[in-house]
Each structure stands twice: as C-alpha cells, then as structure tokens.
Design goal:
Order of helices and strands: HHHEHHEEHEEHEEHEEEEHEEH
CATH architecture: Alpha-Beta Complex
Distance between the termini: 24 Å
Number of domains: 1
CATH topology: Sulfite Oxidase, Chain A, domain 2
Largest sheet: 8 strands, mixed
Number of helices: 10
CATH superfamily: Oxidoreductase, molybdopterin-binding domain
CATH class: Alpha Beta
Structural class: alpha+beta
C-alpha cells in the first residue's frame, strides 16, 4: 500500500481558494471572534454540531493513509451536495430536513438476488472498518477523511451478479420536500452514478456509514454513501436508494450534464485539465489562507493499487 508520510503534507499549511473567498470561512481562518461573525447578518451563525451515535469499528491500517485527517468541522461544513444547494455550506445548513430512518435500497438488474432491502439487512452482516482516505474534488480541493464503512464488493457479492453484469449503477433519493436543492434545474434528478464492476469490487471501494467513529451526518450522505478514493468526489454518490447491475455503461448525472468536464471514469489525473481550470495542483481544505497548492497525485495517490484496472485505456480520452 502506498503511504504518504504525514510530514509531507501538513493540513495547517494549505488553504483552498474556495475558503479564501467564503467570508465565513475566511473570518474564522483569520481568527476573528465568534461574536463578530454572528453579528454580520448576511453570514448568519454556523450550524451547531448535533450529537451523533457512536459506532463500533476496527481501524484498517492497510487501506489508510498516514496523513493527518481534516477536522470534523472541515469535513461536515464544506460539502458538495447539490440536493441541498450549490454553496459549500448549504448541505450543513439544510440537510437536517432529510429523514434517514426507515431507509430501504432497491436492487435490480443482472443479479440472482434482487428486490427491496432494508438498510439494516444490507449492512448488518458486515463488521465496520475505519479507513482514512484522501478525497479529491474536481474543483481542485482535497480533504483527508476517516470514513467508517464496509467494502462495497462484500455487499454486492451477496446479490450474486451474473456474468452479464459489467457495470453497477446507483441512484440517490429523490424527494424535493426533504431535499430542497432538487427543486432547481441544476441537474437532472435523481442523482445517478456508476462504476465498472471491477471498480466496484475493488477492496478500496467502500460504502461509508460513518465519520470519526460516529454515524454519518446528513450533509455527508447519510445513511449510506459510496467512497471511491482514487476518483474525483462526484463519483462518491450519497444517500443511495437504488443499486442496478447492467451490461451497458449507465448514464451518470455529471457526465450527462457537462460531458466535456466530467467523464464516466473520473479518475484523478493531473494531466487532464477541467475546461475551466488545471487539475495539476490542489489545496487542502482547512489550511492556512496563503498556503501554496500541492501537486495532485495520479489516482489521488492510489496508483499502486488501481492503475492496472486501466492499463488498456487512454486516460486522456477516458477521463
């Protein structure tokens, strides 16, 4: 397993442009008082942290980076989750409207075992693991997150996919009453993502149900989300309600909305630019305001584990 020494990248040294231009985050970074931030009416008060249930898990060092994780506040207040709004702080502000219990997942397609399953029946047979993964967003920012979850492959095997199952697709809950961002036309809802079956079965791919040893917060994709650490964050679909095995490559939300920028594979590749910016360097969320960007690693630093999956592909064309 490729490891990065924690001394190589110090989160305290790096701050993303997005934090710099976000007034609330900037004021906090500059050390201004909570009272001053609260009095600035347009900013409002930051959301209070709700009490979360603790989880029983074992730490898996084999699949964990040695980098220092971001703070709980970083990870839970700076999110892309358009179902609750397009600003990075919208999910933390509005995701409390999401009801995560009871929750069920529909499994369909090229598999011997299909139907509707409770969340508990999907998760219960598997012991939870903590894995500290890097998360790289296409907007050129990154985090280090201590996820708690289970290998996706272990779950999928229980449904006995057939030899025709070349891909596995996922959908997010569609409920505009609970998810106000779905009332906008920013994307075609519900959110859809997909993986090749070998990507889905790879031991690095997990279903996350927690953070920092606690139950996953709504704004981070409760009650269950995908985490694929060598891909850009938009592949890690949140609040999953459908799993579908298919022979053909599925349509995915961002690839359909902006195919010039968001390909189906979405592997972190510093040599392939987004149409509007370079992907060669990145900033770590929660770091100093004036810190320099750091080089982006191919496959987000997981090349030793996953590069062989793509040896037959042109990674500039299959982005």
């Amino acid at each position: 397993m490729k490891r990065i020494k924690s001394t190589a990248i110090r989160p305290s040294e790096i701050t993303p442009r997005e934090v710099f231009v976000n007034r609330r985050a900037l004021l906090k970074a500059l050390g201004l008082s909570t009272a001053l931030v609260t009095t600035m009416g347009m900013l409002g008060a930051p959301p209070a942290r709700a009490a979360a249930a603790k989880m029983a898990f074992t730490r898996n060092p084999r699949y964990s980076t040695t980098e220092t994780p971001n703070s709980y506040e970083d990870v839970t207040t700076y999110n892309n989750y358009y179902e609750f709004g397009t600003s990075k702080d919208d999910p933390a502000a509005y995701a409390s409207s999401l009801r995560t219990s009871p929750w069920s997942v529909t499994v369909s397609g090229e598999a011997a075992v299909t139907g509707r399953f409770t969340l508990e029946s999907i998760l219960r047979p598997h012991p939870y693991e903590e894995r500290i993964y890097r998360l790289r967003c296409v907007e050129a920012w990154s985090m280090v997150v201590p996820w708690v979850g289970i290998p996706l492959g272990d779950v999928l095997k229980r449904f006995q996919p057939t030899s025709r199952a070349k891909y596995v697709a996922f959908k997010t809950l569609f409920n505009p009453e609970q998810m106000p961002g779905q009332r906008s036309s920013v994307l075609d809802w519900p959110y859809a993502e997909g993986l090749r079956i070998d990507e889905a079965m790879h031991p690095l791919t997990i279903l996350a149900v927690g953070l920092y040893g606690e139950v996953l917060p709504n704004q981070n994709g409760a009650p269950m989300r995908l985490v694929v650490p060598w891909k850009y964050g938009f592949k890690s679909i949140k609040s999953i309600v459908e799993i579908h095995f298919s022979e053909r490559q599925p349509v995915t939300s961002w690839s359909a909305a902006y195919p010039e920028a968001y390909g189906f594979f979405a592997n972190v590749n510093p040599a392939v630019d987004h149409p509007n910016w370079s992907q060669a360097r990145e900033r770590r969320i929660g770091s100093g305001v004036f810190a320099e960007k750091i080089p982006t690693q191919p496959f987000n630093g997981y090349a030793n584990e996953v590069a062989d999956l793509y040896r037959s592909l042109d990674l500039r064309r299959h982005y």
